[in-house]
Write a structure and sequence with these properties.
Number of strands: 8
Strand content: 35-45%
CATH topology: 2,3-Dihydroxybiphenyl 1,2-Dioxygenase, domain 1
Helix content: 10-25%
Structural class: alpha/beta
Radius of gyration: 15 Å
Mean pLDDT: 94
Shape: globular
Strand order of the largest sheet: 1-4-3-2
Number of helices: 3
CATH class: Alpha Beta
Length: 116
Amino acid sequence: MTDPKLLSIVPQLPVLDLPRSKKFYTEVLGFELRAEYSNLLIFFLDGQELHLWGCDDPKIPEVSSCYIRVQNIDSYFAKYKSAIHPKGTLEDKPWGMREFYVSDPDKNLLKFGEPI
């Protein structure tokens, strides 16, 4: 018997409007759309996968998030400046990460971080 091996963990975020989200994730954040289904969008960015699924409850995206570890966070911060969360800025956190946050149109929080 072969030992099990974890291949990846894929965040799946809820969104209220799939076409609007598709436009935001491709045009603003630069994700590549790889597959589109009636209630699911599959994106890739720098070899990493992210799924968006359609939901009807606006409260769900407002409390959803994912953490994205990057290298050269200053470049990502400059690239995503137009989408930075209203209360967010690039700052060093006490837990040893340099972070900023992006909010998508449905208020999902994308937390970008790099070890200090």
